[in-house]
Amino acid sequence: LQSQSDVILGCGGGVVEVPSNREILKQWICIWLDASDEVLLERTRDSLRPLQPGLTHAESARHLRSRREQWYRELGVEAVDTSDLDPGEVVTEVLKHLERF
Predict the structure, then answer these.
(1) CATH topology for the 13-99 domain
(2) Where are the alpha helices (DSSP H) in 1-101?
């Protein structure tokens, strides 16, 4: 990837959980597609993703988002709140962020 230009790479939200991934992300323009806790819960309601032991789905989702948000902020990643956006609007917002670079 480092030899490529004009690449968009979609990563799962957990990419920031791995320290070596965070080091790689520092080299790129990154945009975090965020959403409110309520929206994230709705989007993952039927997910088969494992929960954290002893936590409800809501507690687990909030804990994950809180932990990941810290790393995204430390990386200085641009955030787009997708809570109330349809896919086309998300693209428009991402392009606005990219125009700054």
Answers:
(1) Rossmann fold (3.40.50)
(2) 19-25, 37-43, 57-75, 87-99
